[in-house]
Amino acid sequence: MRLHLRSIDHGPVSLPIWQSILEDLANPPPTRVARVLGVSQRTVYRWNATGHAPRVAQLALFWLTRWGQSLVHANAERDCVEAVGLARSLGDQVERLNAEVANLRALSAPGGGHD
Known about the structure:
Blueprint: H1 18-24, H2 30-37, H3 41-50, H4 55-62, H5 66-108
Helix pairs in contact: 2-3
Protein backbone atom coordinates (compact mmCIF):
# COMPACT_ATOMS: atom_id res chain seq x y z
CA MET A 1 0.00 0.00 0.00
CA ARG A 2 1.35 3.42 -0.97
CA LEU A 3 0.35 6.74 0.47
CA HIS A 4 -0.70 9.35 -2.11
CA LEU A 5 -1.10 12.64 -0.28
CA ARG A 6 -1.71 15.99 -1.98
CA SER A 7 -1.99 14.72 -5.50
CA ILE A 8 -2.77 17.05 -8.38
CA ASP A 9 -5.71 14.72 -9.00
CA HIS A 10 -7.40 16.08 -5.87
CA GLY A 11 -7.97 19.58 -7.27
CA PRO A 12 -11.39 20.88 -8.25
CA VAL A 13 -12.91 19.42 -11.40
CA SER A 14 -15.17 22.39 -11.98
CA LEU A 15 -15.19 25.90 -10.60
CA PRO A 16 -17.98 28.28 -9.62
CA ILE A 17 -18.58 31.18 -11.99
CA TRP A 18 -16.48 34.29 -11.51
CA GLN A 19 -19.24 36.33 -9.89
CA SER A 20 -20.02 33.55 -7.40
CA ILE A 21 -16.38 33.37 -6.39
CA LEU A 22 -16.31 37.13 -5.80
CA GLU A 23 -19.61 37.05 -3.90
CA ASP A 24 -18.30 34.28 -1.65
CA LEU A 25 -15.28 36.48 -0.90
CA ALA A 26 -17.61 39.38 0.05
CA ASN A 27 -17.11 41.17 -3.28
CA PRO A 28 -13.60 42.50 -2.74
CA PRO A 29 -12.76 45.69 -4.62
CA PRO A 30 -10.99 45.18 -7.96
CA THR A 31 -7.84 46.77 -6.52
CA ARG A 32 -7.52 43.99 -3.94
CA VAL A 33 -8.30 41.27 -6.48
CA ALA A 34 -5.71 42.75 -8.85
CA ARG A 35 -3.09 42.87 -6.10
CA VAL A 36 -3.72 39.27 -5.00
CA LEU A 37 -3.64 37.93 -8.56
CA GLY A 38 -0.78 40.12 -9.77
CA VAL A 39 -2.76 41.67 -12.61
CA SER A 40 -3.83 45.23 -13.39
CA GLN A 41 -7.01 46.75 -11.98
CA ARG A 42 -8.14 47.29 -15.55
CA THR A 43 -7.93 43.56 -16.16
CA VAL A 44 -10.11 42.82 -13.13
CA TYR A 45 -12.62 45.48 -14.19
CA ARG A 46 -12.80 43.80 -17.62
CA TRP A 47 -13.33 40.36 -16.04
CA ASN A 48 -16.05 41.78 -13.82
CA ALA A 49 -17.73 43.47 -16.78
CA THR A 50 -17.78 40.30 -18.86
CA GLY A 51 -18.45 38.01 -15.91
CA HIS A 52 -15.58 35.77 -17.00
CA ALA A 53 -12.00 35.42 -15.85
CA PRO A 54 -9.32 33.00 -16.98
CA ARG A 55 -9.45 29.62 -15.26
CA VAL A 56 -6.12 30.28 -13.54
CA ALA A 57 -7.52 33.43 -11.91
CA GLN A 58 -10.67 31.58 -10.86
CA LEU A 59 -8.61 28.72 -9.51
CA ALA A 60 -6.36 31.05 -7.54
CA LEU A 61 -9.32 32.70 -5.80
CA PHE A 62 -11.28 29.45 -5.49
CA TRP A 63 -8.99 28.25 -2.69
CA LEU A 64 -10.00 31.28 -0.63
CA THR A 65 -13.74 30.55 -0.93
CA ARG A 66 -15.78 28.30 1.36
CA TRP A 67 -15.82 25.70 -1.43
CA GLY A 68 -12.05 25.73 -1.74
CA GLN A 69 -11.57 25.61 2.02
CA SER A 70 -14.06 22.74 2.21
CA LEU A 71 -12.14 20.84 -0.45
CA VAL A 72 -8.86 21.43 1.39
CA HIS A 73 -10.45 20.15 4.61
CA ALA A 74 -11.94 17.09 2.89
CA ASN A 75 -8.60 16.27 1.25
CA ALA A 76 -6.76 16.66 4.56
CA GLU A 77 -9.26 14.39 6.29
CA ARG A 78 -8.97 11.80 3.52
CA ASP A 79 -5.17 11.96 3.73
CA CYS A 80 -5.34 11.47 7.50
CA VAL A 81 -7.65 8.46 7.24
CA GLU A 82 -5.42 6.97 4.55
CA ALA A 83 -2.27 7.54 6.63
CA VAL A 84 -3.85 5.99 9.73
CA GLY A 85 -4.97 2.99 7.68
CA LEU A 86 -1.45 2.56 6.32
CA ALA A 87 0.07 2.86 9.79
CA ARG A 88 -2.32 0.23 11.16
CA SER A 89 -1.64 -2.08 8.23
CA LEU A 90 2.11 -1.73 8.69
CA GLY A 91 1.73 -2.30 12.44
CA ASP A 92 -0.18 -5.52 11.78
CA GLN A 93 2.52 -6.59 9.33
CA VAL A 94 5.24 -5.92 11.92
CA GLU A 95 3.37 -8.03 14.49
CA ARG A 96 3.02 -10.91 12.03
CA LEU A 97 6.68 -10.73 11.09
CA ASN A 98 7.76 -10.58 14.74
CA ALA A 99 5.66 -13.67 15.45
CA GLU A 100 7.24 -15.41 12.47
CA VAL A 101 10.75 -14.49 13.66
CA ALA A 102 9.95 -15.76 17.17
CA ASN A 103 8.63 -19.00 15.67
CA LEU A 104 11.76 -19.44 13.53
CA ARG A 105 14.00 -18.78 16.55
CA ALA A 106 12.10 -21.36 18.56
CA LEU A 107 12.52 -23.91 15.78
CA SER A 108 16.24 -23.23 15.42
CA ALA A 109 16.95 -23.36 19.17
CA PRO A 110 18.52 -26.57 20.50
CA GLY A 111 15.75 -29.07 21.01
CA GLY A 112 13.25 -26.82 19.31
CA GLY A 113 13.23 -28.47 15.93
CA HIS A 114 11.61 -31.70 14.90
CA ASP A 115 14.19 -34.48 14.49
